[in-house]
Design goal:
The protein has 86 residues and is an alpha+beta fold. It is 17% helix and 22% strand. It binds zinc ion.
Length: 86
């Protein structure tokens, strides 16, 4: 599962696999670019996780355990320097 490149200002959403599809330890919150079409064949998270329609819940905010890889991919280089200064 490879990560994907993303645009710095693209709209994103947070999704989590539905209960029962995977074990609780794998039900992390993935960051997914908002698709251009209403119902795409699949969503691809920043970490590369592929999520099929009906497999995930769309969350209104980051809650629970975040996906480490998705979280790392959301850090913008311009802001990483600012964050390191504090
Ligand atoms: Zn992820």
């Amino acid at each position: 599962m490879g990560s994907i490149a993303h645009e710095p200002d693209e709209a994103v959403m947070v999704v989590r696999l539905r209960r029962g599809l995977v074990g609780e330890s794998r039900r992390v919150c993935h960051v997914v670019p908002v698709p251009s079409e209403p119902v795409p064949d699949e969503l691809v998270a920043y970490c590369g996780a592929r999520i099929l329609p009906g497999q995930a819940d769309l969350l209104s905010h980051l809650t629970g355990m975040p996906c480490d890889s998705c979280l790392a991919m959301t850090v913008r280089p311009g802001r990483a320097g600012l964050a390191a200064a504090f």
